[in-house]
Amino acid sequence: FSQLVVRMERSGDSVLVESCVRMLVKQCASDPRRTNLVAKLVQRAVDEAEGESLRWRSVYPYHLEDLSTSLPTLLRPILLEELGGALRDGREVAANALSSFAGELLVLGVLTCDDLHDVVGLLFGGTSKGSRFYCVSLCRMLRRIVISAEASHIIDGLGLLELIEDVLKEDTISLQVRFMMNVRLPEPCTPSALVLIVCTSSDNARP
Length: 207
Known about the structure:
The protein is mainly α.
């Protein structure tokens, strides 16, 4: 798969790479059990493509990579599009799987905090309006983040604590969503611990 991606990116055919990305994202949405596997396949492919680019630059110092055909560049808008569609259509299993996939890609370094600001904004936006559906999907993404070695960095990069506080300021959110998001911890409390308990609360609040 990694070699296939390298060849596709090298071909400069953005339509072909986009088709590959859509296939991967749809695979995650339809088979949540393979989300972690697909994310790791993507990571290997991205690492191989970056290695190929470095090898080219060692021979041709002025070699420029075409970002328009890179997996991460195309993953960002397609993942947002597919997740938004799943949320609008009420496809809870798909939305949860894609949110988890987003978290995996972030932890693995395929996507950055900047890449996922729109996804995070979408999920927190629905949660702040009182949607349990959006809230559970959000927690699927957060759960993968808080158990990673880069948890503190990612939590700060996404501004998660501030976003959780903003949700709790909303008077219109349901009691169920408030329960999922409202946690009280003894001091001192690390950002990772706070978000982790929010994720755990989402499971306890499910009917």
